[in-house]
Specification:
Layout lengths: L1 H19 L11 E6 L1 H9 L2 E3 L2 E7 L7 H16 L3 E6 L5 H10 L3 E4 L3 H14 L4 H9 L1
Parallel strand pairs: 1-3, 1-4, 4-5
Antiparallel strand pairs: 2-3
Helix pairs in contact: 2-5, 3-4, 5-6
Length: 146
């Protein structure tokens, strides 16, 4: 049992260190932050990826969603994927019926949610925010888009 407690303590410490990397605790120079982009926005968003504020900004492209209930389920899964990633600073959503569904999940986790028709424009705003405050990218992006 003591060995299990030691492993649990180590796992919690590691998780705390990871979460501090992009959340309120700040990010180290050279770290990578992630922007999750719905499929229709991905191509343009990827063009805006690169360095900002001493950080590497990468775009995680989400798979195209179906229609109806399967689209809602996919939107929820996409939103949860973004919120479970400690490097996530933003979620780009295309206008449509699933948008409000992903918004509540993403915003509840303290990740910026942007509904946009242009992945390029959204990435410009995100990069600008990170360049303004690379020490706390998640907060900077939330402040910029909020």
């Amino acid at each position: 049992m003591p060995r299990l407690q030691a492993i649990s303590s180590a796992a919690l410490a590691a998780l705390a260190a990871i979460l501090a990397g992009c959340g309120a605790g700040g990010a180290e120079g050279g770290a990578t932050v992630s922007v999750y982009a719905a499929a229709p926005l991905c191509r343009e968003a990827r063009q805006g990826a690169g360095a900002a504020g001493g950080l590497e900004v990468r775009v995680v492209c989400l798979r195209p969603r179906g229609r109806g209930d399967s689209a809602l389920a996919a939107a929820g899964a996409d939103a949860r994927q973004a919120t479970e990633d400690s490097t996530s600073v933003a979620f780009l959503e295309a206008p449509g019926p699933t948008a409000k569904f992903s918004q509540s999940i993403v915003e509840a986790a303290g990740v910026a949610w942007l509904q946009t028709r242009s992945g390029a424009t959204a990435m410009q705003r995100i990069v600008k925010a990170i360049e303004g405050d690379g020490s706390s990218p998640r907060k900077a992006v939330l402040d910029e888009v909020g």
